[in-house]
Amino acid sequence: MASTACPPSTAGSVTGQSGFVPPLVDAYTFTSGMAFEGEVATILTDVTGGCDRFRRNERVRGETWIRLIQLKGWPNQPQNSTPLDWIAGRFEIGRVYTELDGSIRQARAYHTVFGNGCNYKDELAVAGSVAWNVIDTVAGQIAGSFDLIFPDGKVAASFTAPICSLVDCPPRPSTSTCIDQ
Predict the structure, then answer these.
(1) Which helix (H) or strand (E) is 177 found in, with range?
(2) Helix, strand, coil abundance in the chain, percent, nearest 5
(3) N or C: which terminal CB in the chain sees fewer CB atoms within 10 Å?
């Protein structure tokens, strides 16, 4: 049963940033889906406390994100439900990779800006790559780098993004709340 407060979260880091977005100061990762189909999503943000706000489903007015996503699955779903691990490595944006076991992977990246009412604008990266150097879901650590091209410009950085666990937390609200920074 979940407690009334989450265990402390660990802040991530963003280093060596260049490009058109404001300075990114925090990073966290979460996974969704099932063992045989899902995504690992890393959020890099220009506001501190990212994991804690994710746990409370809060959005900050004016906040900027870079979202890095690795998708995994089987091309013959739902017939195949063999579990898949996340894969470290470099992935070009938009390219579908077929692994030796027949599973498929894809990387996507988004530039997201939240407005005054926390409405948001998403831009999908049109080119570039994401390198996941470390994907250790047991230790709760994700690390890597990216070099991306969006319609508005280029952005690159390295990151360390701890997994933002919801275990032992109160249930995450189903609707987001818009807050000031």
Answers:
(1) strand 177-179
(2) 5, 50, 45
(3) N
Distance (Å, rounded) from C-alpha 34 to C-alpha 93?
A: 23
Dist CA 27 CA 43 (whole Å): 5
* Sequence spans of domains, the chain: 22-166
Burial class of 38 by CB neighbour count within 10 A (0 to 12, 13 to 18, 19+): middle
Q: In what order do the strands lie in the sheet with 127-136?
A: 13-19, 153-160, 141-150, 127-136, 89-92
Q: What is the CA radius of gyration of the chain?
A: 16
Residue 63 structure tokens: 């906040």
pTM: 0.91
Burial class of 141 by CB neighbour count within 10 A (0 to 12, 13 to 18, 19+):
middle
What digits encode the pLDDT tens for the residues 115-142?
Answer: 999 999 999 999 999 999 998 888 888 9
**Residue 93: partners with Cβ closer than 8 Å, 6 or more residues away:** 107, 108, 109, 125, 126, 127, 128, 129, 130, 148
